[in-house]
Write a structure and sequence with these properties.
Blueprint (H helix, E strand, L loop, with lengths): L1 H18 L14 E5 L7 E5 L2 H6 L5 H23 L12 H15 L1
Antiparallel strand pairs: 1-2
């Protein structure tokens, strides 16, 4: 009986791991192509293919306007994370769209559709 229970537990854990999604990398990246994370507050998270030369441009020194825009976006994300947390989703308020935030965002969008 213990062996059957242990086997069932292992199968259940395996299925849970297989269903978990990781939003740190694109789902099926192709070699030699570049991608960027696209977060929209009204849509599900997605990866978009971009021109690789854009990445080289991003490594240059940022202007004050660009730094200000980044800070504004970070504050906006922090407000959204606070909202999700207040609604009961497991989210840390960091200002970054991490895996926890994206999963909570998708759950929130599903609940809004109902």
């Amino acid at each position: 009986m213990k062996k059957v229970f242990l086997l069932a537990l292992i199968c259940l854990c395996t299925v849970q791991v297989m269903n978990a999604q990781n939003y740190d990398v694109p789902p099926n990246p192709e070699q030699g192509k570049c991608y960027e994370r696209c977060f929209d507050y009204n849509k599900e998270f997605e990866w978009k293919e971009i021109d690789c030369s854009k990445i080289k441009e991003q490594n240059t020194k940022l202007t004050e306007a660009q730094l200000s825009k980044i800070e504004t976006e970070k504050q906006k994300m922090q407000q959204y994370q606070k909202k999700l947390k207040a609604l009961g989703y497991k989210v840390e308020v960091t200002g970054i769209a991490d895996n926890q935030t994206i999963i909570a965002h998708h759950k929130y969008l599903k609940s809004q559709k109902k």
